[in-house]
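for the writeup, i need someone to sanity check this before i put it in the appendix. the sequnce is what the collaborator sent (i think, or maybe the updated version? ugh). structure was predicted straight from it, no edits. if anything looks off just tell me and ill rerun, i have time this weekend
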Amino acid sequence: MTDIATRATRVVESSVGRHRRSNGGGPRAGTVAAFLTPFFLPFVLFYLVPVGYALWQSFRVVRRTGGQYGTSYTTFGGFEQYVEVFQNSEFWASIGRIGLFGIVQVPVMLFVALVMALLLDTPLLRLKSFFRITAFMPYAVPGVIAAIMWSYLYSPQLSPVVDLLQGIGLEPDFLGPGAVLWSAANVSTWLWTGYNMLIMYSALQSIPQELYEAAKIDGASNWTIAWRIKVPIIAPSIVLTTVFSIIGTLQLYAEPAVLRQISSNISSTFTPNMLAYAVASGNNYQQAAAISVVIAVITFVLSFGFMRLTSKKAGL
């Protein structure tokens, strides 16, 4: 029986070797390319090409010859557009607003998402499926629709919330100069908390139950298990959601753009993305491209810097 098994093994190994040699030692390049093309083709056409075109446009300037009624032409201008961007006070004002927005909104949103994920993971909570779907439902609403919904709740003329608060002696002004930024932050928090919660909850589901049982045997309470065991284990998921939130903060556009329709305290340059759009609407596509490139660089630096910082603290 041993000899038969040995000969069978040799026959199988020989046939596998001949198959590998006939295929060049592995899968053919044409097969690999056929599988990768559906991804790389849209990636190149709709990501790399637009990014490259924006970068190229950012180094060009419009010149005019013959005075006011002369002809204009586009030529290479070096870093001239970037100099104008960095000298633009409206650009720095928009960066300041979005920085304040991110410093406050992102930690609050992620903390709420973490608490919700921990509550869903505890065995004491009933109707988990209902609460999970309810918390995730806002993410299914498009950002523009969500901003329109909240605009109705913020409007002094239409909002039942404002009427209720006025009925108890309060005078809320959700669209005032000191509150409109936080009104937009509230819309973003409502939209994205459930999404981040689901990422954290999925990470919690991968933790072995034996770890909790061992901690309970050692006398750990549910609170101790949550903050001393669960949170450190899902730290990579928290970092991931933080990076996503940083990127989303610098891309903020829909919420303030919609609220601008009912509030004079939001200008067309309220956020960096709104500034880029306003500049492009004035047919200054080259400077709009430079603003977009600067926003992309800032986003990369903050995201990569946060990941490096957290990796060093974790000893990775």
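The two ends are 52 Å apart (CA to CA). Residues 89-121 form the longest helix (33 residues).
thx in advance!!
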